[in-house]
């Protein structure tokens, strides 16, 4: 994977975009990794794989009986728990 500083990527944006079309580019700031840029094609493939993995896990949960019927009461209970959780920092 190619590595590029955020400063260089900003100054040479065209080169940065061209590089990301060929392979993922790791962006650094103060020698610390801060982001990875990938091509649209790679992003679409990664997204499709994540969706497939989620569907597979969901089907496995159903097959194993790890399901709960989503009734109005169950939904309200989950919403109440969500509303009482402190926001993440």
Automatic annotation (TrEMBL):
Organism of derivation: Gemmobacter lanyuensis
InterPro entries membership: Antitoxin_Phd/YefM (IPR006442), YefM-like_sf (IPR036165)
The protein, known as: Antitoxin
Coiled coil spans: none
Alphabetical list of Gene3D superfamilies matching this protein: YefM-like domain
Family the entry assigns: Belongs to the phD/YefM antitoxin family.
Alphabetical list of SUPFAM superfamilies matching this protein: YefM-like
Role: Antitoxin component of a type II toxin-antitoxin (TA) system.
């Amino acid at each position: 994977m190619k590595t590029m500083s955020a400063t260089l990527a900003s100054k040479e944006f065209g080169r940065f975009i061209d590089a990301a079309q060929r392979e993922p580019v790791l962006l650094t700031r103060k020698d610390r990794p801060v982001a990875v840029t990938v091509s649209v094609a790679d992003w679409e493939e990664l997204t499709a794989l994540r969706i497939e993995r989620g569907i597979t896990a969901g089907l496995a949960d159903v097959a194993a009986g790890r399901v709960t019927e989503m009734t109005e009461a169950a939904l309200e209970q989950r919403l109440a728990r969500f509303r009482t959780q402190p926001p993440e920092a």
